[in-house]
Specification:
The chain has 176 residues and is of the alpha+beta class. It folds into two domains: 2-108, no CATH class; 121-165, no CATH class. It contains seven helices and three strands. The protein has helices spanning 2-7, 9-17, 32-40, 42-45, 50-77, 83-108, 162-165, and strands at residues 121-129, 132-141, 144-153. The chain has a three-stranded antiparallel beta sheet, with no helix packed on it. α5 crosses α6. It is elongated and about 75 Å long. It starts with a helix and ends in an 11-residue tail after the last helix.
């Protein structure tokens, strides 16, 4: 397996054409596990700078997958291996995965973050109806409800809810 993924002519050509131009065929891997360890620890084992590690891991995963796919197409369907087609596929797939990672990183900034240890985050919900105001307060950590408080307040008039809408405190009506 190591020979197929690292040392055969097609694999050697592909690895040399990556932006890092690492001669993977010259590194003595005794097993596939050693290969995976080297890829995942490329900053230490292959002397890559820290910023290059994530793109390298993505490229390496795509290279290994492409070599394996090319092998399967050759063995099972007698489709000849065309290195230029593999390169084109690698460029396309790298662009797709890079865009997906950017979306995930952008979305990660929008995710709910739990409060610091020792703090509780208070989540509230309010429904304002003609016959009254309903408030539910849940205190939770890790999405586990700890306490629910449910109250219905009677409505005195259209201005009774102004304090609530503008973030003011106090009594919004009388408890029903």
């Amino acid at each position: 397996m190591v020979h197929l993924l690292m040392k055969c002519n097609v694999a050697t050509k592909i690895w040399k054409e990556l932006p890092w131009a690492i001669r993977m065929d010259c590194i003595p891997f005794s097993s596939s596990a050693d290969l995976v360890k080297a890829i995942l620890n490329a900053d230490v084992l292959l002397n890559l700078d820290h910023q290059s590690v994530k793109p390298f891991i993505l490229n390496a995963a795509l290279v290994l997958d492409s070599i394996w796919q090319a092998r399967n197409l050759l063995v099972h369907q007698q489709v000849p291996v065309v290195v230029e087609d593999i390169f084109a596929g690698l460029r396309r797939r790298y662009a797709e995965h890079s865009c997906a990672w950017m979306e995930v990183e952008r979305a990660a900034g929008k995710r709910w973050v739990p409060p610091p240890f020792g703090w509780l985050k208070v989540n509230t919900d309010v429904a304002i109806r003609r016959n009254g105001l309903y408030i539910v307060i849940s205190l939770d950590i890790l999405l586990v409800p700890l306490y629910d408080l449910y109250r219905k307040f009677s409505c005195y008039g259209p201005n009774s809810w102004e304090g609530l809408r503008f973030g003011g405190g106090g009594v919004f009506g009388s408890e029903a």
